[in-house]
Amino acid sequence: MRSTSVKVVVTAFALASLAACGTSSSDDDGGGTGAGSKADISAPLDPKTKVSLTIDCMPPKAKAAERRQWNEDVKAFNKKYPNVTIDGKSTAGQCEEPARFTAALKAKSQPDVFYTYFTDLQQVLDNNCAEDITPYVTKKTVPALDSIDPNVLAALKKDSKLYGLPTSNYTMGLLINRKLFKQAGLDPDKPPTTWAEVRTAAKKIAGLGNGISGYGEYSAENTGGWHFTATMYGLGGDVVTPDGKKAAFNDATGKQVAKQLHDMRWKDNSMGKTQLLKWGDLQKQIASDKLGMFLAAPDDVTYMVQQLGADYANFGMGPIPGGKATLFGGNDYMIKKGSSPDKIKAAIAWLNFKTLTPAKGQFDWPRTKEDKLPVGLPQPNFFTGTVKTDDLQSRTDNATMPVRNFEPFMANPVRGKAEPPKAQEVYKVLDNVMSGVLTNKNADVDKLLSSAEQQVNQVLANQ
Amino acid sequence: MSAPTLPAKPRQSAPPARKHQLTPRDGSLTRTVKRHLSAHGFLIGAVLCFSFFSWYPMVREFLLAFQKTKDGRTTWAGWSNLTYVFNDPAFWQAWRNTLLFTALALLLGFAVPFLIAVLLNEFRHGQGYLRMLVYLPVMLPPVASVLLFKYFYDPGYGLFNRILGVFGIPEQQWLQSTDTAMLSVVIAATWMNMGGATLIYLASLQGVPGELYEAAELDGAGLWRKIWHVTIPQTRLILSLMFLMQIIATMQVFTEPFLLTNGAGPEGSTTTVVYLIYQYAFNFNNYGGAAALGLVLLVLLAAFSAVYVRLSRASDD
After folding, report:
1. Cβ contact B52–A22 (<8 Å)
2. Which of A40, A90, A320, B66 makes an SS bond possible with A234, Cβ 3.0 to 4.6 Å?
3. Burial of B234 from C-beta contacts in 10 A (0-12 / 13-18 / 19+)
4. Local structure of A441: helix, strand or coil
């Protein structure tokens, strides 16, 4: 008897192993049932339609207030669409970690509604992972559609087809530590606007001693190349030619970018000894009053306050030095390829409710203030016209931080410019230029740029 | 009080060898299947899991090396992935770095544990304690060890520069200079991994007959002559095996440079071949390139492994 039981258990285990190894966790049943299935795809979802959706980026339990807001929004959404089941998926760290995201795309295991960066579009399309939602996104399904900045929507299109809906966007500027500015005798209400001014201010801040750096830069994990690109844009340069086929940074502007960083690091000694920094490192330095300035997007401040315990009042922002153009990017949601029309409609209805309705969802600033979350940062800012004006007014009225600290950034908007094609590969190559000038006193700028140019040309030739 | 004497147990004879029972000689097929049900159950589970998680990915990797995916379409790409990989300037840099790591790791990671084992072998007392001390770093999680070294190496406030400062030596850039980055990675890797190698060498040294050393001493041999004429010849096979295993392991180095220098290091000076594979796959979404480079590495390591297997057989004999 006992031996039979053991055999049964072992056989069951083997079958369970078979099942565990062989079945996919994805359960894409094709979506919904109900009246909506055969309706016009440009029409909103029929509330009687039964659909279940898995959605990325639900705030984790550790973010209690954001999680509560998510649950409230699901409840409110279900009043209109009682048959739509929202199954949120949360991750402890960033909503999208490139390595995990890449693997998920290859395995087609991403949720029905998945979170991406603007720069991911080509990768998603290469893996045949997103639905073309062009016919579904109309004035009826997304009433604020005409108020969304066309540049933002353009980042989510390929060959005039729309593949995503934005949740946030950013443009880069110069983030400053107001306390260090004051200590160094600088005016924190007037952040530097040219690189000459940045260099002077950085020297003064580094002069405070005690391990304080005036200016900080990344040079690892592709973030060095990302900032090199942003600095180039600020000076009116570019990293690739307009047709996207050749490198364009090995010119006078590229040399200026590399040379000025080299001089700040080695001649002025205003950039600190520890280099090869990546995203998160500079935020820690500035949050602990060890760094005066670095290029950043406003949402870095949220990270510094919520994760690192910094104080909103200690930070301010000015436009990107040079002010010719600034790098823009952002985040969005896409819908898994193979989803049924009802599923797509339900996803769009949810995204419209949560992220694209002025004064609701993520733009419900009175609620955000009540929950003691940040209100008053200049971004996300992807609406235009009166919607934008009303939204900014509501932010100011409910601000939980000194909005005027960001006035120099807001009052001097710089034209946003999209990231280059093959952005991550180009950035990786340009990391070498950044790490070269920041770690090697005798760096040969011309050689670094020409070697990087050769590599980027090869990357672009293989598109 | 003496312990009570227990009656001696009758010595059990060895169980008779089981007859080969895989064929239904003594019963029906059903009975045989029933008899081996649990064994097959275990076997099926293991085989399936290996199939899905080890063998299938290997076959898939091989196929991917000759495929390209663009706009959702996967097509056969012939040798183009390999051509791409060979034409990538980072490819040669990664190989140079990997070979440099291997050479340095052999110099340090091979010699240092052997010398420590020889010294430990000389101690008559407290050997267990010393062995534990040497093995301790292996028990630390690699990430913790690496972070420890990252702090030691920091040019601003790191321990190593503080120590150098005491002797009036100017501070070094350690991980942040193309001249020292790889060496710094090797030092950290050697410290993290030498415990295991030391114990293997020590076990081998303890198998060397003591009379050989006594004879050498009678002939007037000092420590170095004893090592050269007795220790090394007697442990030659283990040394050869460890040498090859070290080559195979170091050519796949990933964790240490990935954690210490974010993979690339200054001007890409610590980018290794395996990191480049990771980068192709997960940063550049170039699975074909990653698989092709994996294949190149596989061929090279297979050659080393063949030598290793040959040597293992010789050692068994």
Report:
1. yes
2. A320
3. middle
4. coil
Report chain A residues whose CB lies below 8 A from the CB of B86. none
Residues of B within 8 A of A453 (CB-CB) are none
Distance in Å from the first CA to the final CA of chain B: 51
Q: Are A180 and A211 within 8 A, CB to CB?
A: no
CB contact under 8 A, B282 and A17: no
Cα–Cα distance measured from residue A254 to residue A259, given in angstroms and rounded to the nearest whole number: 8
Q: Could you tell me if B268 lies within 8 Å of chain A, comparing CB atoms? A: yes
Q: What is the rounded CA–CA span in Å between residue B271 and residue B257?
A: 7
Specify the 3-state DSSP secondary structure of B295: helix
> B83 CB near a chain A CB, below 8 Å?
no
How much is the ipTM here?
Answer: 0.75
Best mutation target, B32, B54, B176, to test chain A (most A CBs within 10 A): B176
Decide if A98 and B282 are in contact by the 8 Å CB cutoff.
yes
Residue of B267, B278, B280, B282 best to disrupt the A interface, most CBs of A under 10 A:
B267
Burial-class residue A240 by CB neighbours within 10 Å (0-12, 13-18, 19+): buried
Residue ranges with strand state E in A392-436: 416-417
Scanning every residue of chain B, which has its alpha carbon at the shortest distance from the alpha carbon of A211?
B156
Best mutation target, A15, A17, A453, to test chain B (most B CBs within 10 A): A17
d(CA B262, CA B246): 23
The CA distance from A272 to A214, in Å, is: 8
The whole-angstrom separation of Cα A227 and Cα A294 is 10
Q: Per-residue confidence at B311, pLDDT binned at 50, 70, 90?
A: confident
Strand partners, B84: none
Name the least confident of A46-60, A248-262, B94-108, B152-166.
B152-166
- Among candidates A39, A40, A38, A35, which has minimal Cα distance to A50? A35
A436 neighbourhood in chain B, CB within 8 Å: 266-267
Q: What whole-number distance in Å separates Cα of residue A314 and Cα of residue A192?
A: 17
Q: Give the confidence band of B292 by pLDDT, cuts at 50, 70, 90.
A: very high
Q: Bin B82: left if φ > 0, else alpha if -120 < ψ < 50, else beta.
A: alpha
Tally of helices (H runs) and strands (E runs) in chain A: 17, 12
| Residue A264 predicted with pLDDT over 90 | yes
Least confident window among A245-259, B8-22, B90-104, B237-251: B8-22
A132-176 pLDDT, tens per residue? Answer: 999 999 999 999 999 999 989 999 999 999 999 999 999 999 999
For the residues of A133-165, what is the DSSP string, one character each? Answer: -GGG-STTTSTTGGGB-HHHHHTTEETTEE-EE
* Reported pTM: 0.80
| Residues A295 and A227 sit within 8 Å (Cβ to Cβ) | yes
Kindly report each contact of residues A26-33 with a partner whose C-beta sits within 8 Å and lies 24 or more positions away, as own/partner.
A26/A108, A26/A109, A28/A112, A28/A336, A28/A338, A28/A339, A30/A338, A30/A339, A30/A340, A30/A343, A31/A339, A31/A340, A31/A341, A31/A342, A31/A343, A31/A346, A32/A340, A32/A342, A32/A343, A32/A346, A33/A342
